[in-house]
Amino acid sequence: MKVYLDNNATTIVDPAVFSEMEPYFVQRYGNPNSLHLFASETHPAIKDGMEKIYAGIHAPREDSVIITSCATESNNWVLKSIYFEYILTGKKNHIMVSEVEHPSVIATAKFIESMGAKVTYLPINHEGIIDPQTVRDNITENTALVSIMWANNETGAIFPIAEIGDICEEHNVLFHTDAVQAIGKTPVDVQAINVDYLTFSAHKFHGPKGVGALYVKKGKELIPLLHGGAQMGGYRSGTLNVPGIVGMGKAMEQAIDALEFEMTEVREMRDAFEDELLKIEDTFVVTPREKRTPNTILISFRGIEGESMLWDLNRAGIGASTGSACASEDLEANSVMEAIGAAEDLAHTAIRFSLSRYTTQEELDYTLETVKEAVKRLRGISSSYAYAPEGHKSGLDSHHH
Ligand code: C6P
Fold this sequence. Notes:
Bound molecules: ligand C6P
Strand content: 5-15%
Number of strands: 12
CATH class of the largest domain: Alpha Beta
Number of helices: 13
Mean pLDDT: 94
Helix content: 25-40%
Structural class: alpha/beta
Distance between the termini: 42 Å
Strand order of the largest sheet: 2-8-7-6-5-3-4
CATH superfamily of the largest domain: Type I PLP-dependent aspartate aminotransferase-like (Major domain)
Number of domains: 2
Radius of gyration: 22 Å
């Protein structure tokens, strides 16, 4: 049996999305900017795709949604644009990000820090969540941007984006949110909250890889990323990714249709699976489930290196992860576990299971049995587990900062 439980890394392309994209490779392949029939036959599909994307996040027509190649690009773009607009010009010199942002935000923040920006890395609390008060406490008159993710990719923790948006608005600070893990899992409405920039990526909600987007509220600064033929309003030149736009549009439409299902059925399956996992002795979950996206579990098995668990799971045909996919080769402690101050022995034991609307009960039953066997085997050969001090069974509380 093959079981895919790494849907926060990427998702299967919905077959309906794939078939909608297909004609735009071999049949309708024209460059939309050309002046002939091959171009014009792509126009309705682009319009339709863009409308679905706008509708999916409730973006009004006057705002911009710029199609990019991925969320990494969108995140880089916002921070670097702020660098050019504010920091280089000396208008303001400070930005804030949470310490558990995706590397595409953290590494970009570090880069602009090396170019002279002042960057505050905001801590998360013991539940793996940002307290809006920390944002308020750290804002100064020199703060140009706050960038805080909507939902964390490792724990699934949903951050208090509405409150943070209000605080930024009140202090005249621009607010960006990385909503990659939020689309299709929790309602995302750019008109319901104060947000100036919002990032998302099609392959996280059953669309194709290589297509992301950046939402920009009307009138908010943005430096053009790619100068050239003036596509995307001159902000991001380059021939439009027609199949990508079609695919992201369809995937967005499907994600919105399936949102209720994710928030009920997927959540129930996740909760029941988690209940069973937590019956295994010495297991811990950081963020309370009601504060998480419906599909994610980050769970620690004391005494078991995450990588060893992954190995056993992989041998049984199950794909999971120890955290973010792009950090999984470095064997470092899970970044959220580190940020909440988990003891070193627990920091390396986290496993992320991320479900999707394609996950079946049978797959979870099989995974549960495999995990139980792996725990038995790995704790049996673990040198550290036998020596784990008593009294650690109440969870992570004893390890908080
Ligand atoms: N997180 C994970 O395993 P791209 O690859 O550019 O489309 O998406 C990057 C990205 C940005 N923000 C968040 C919150 C993300 O979760 C990701 C991708 C994957 O968690 C791969 S590292």
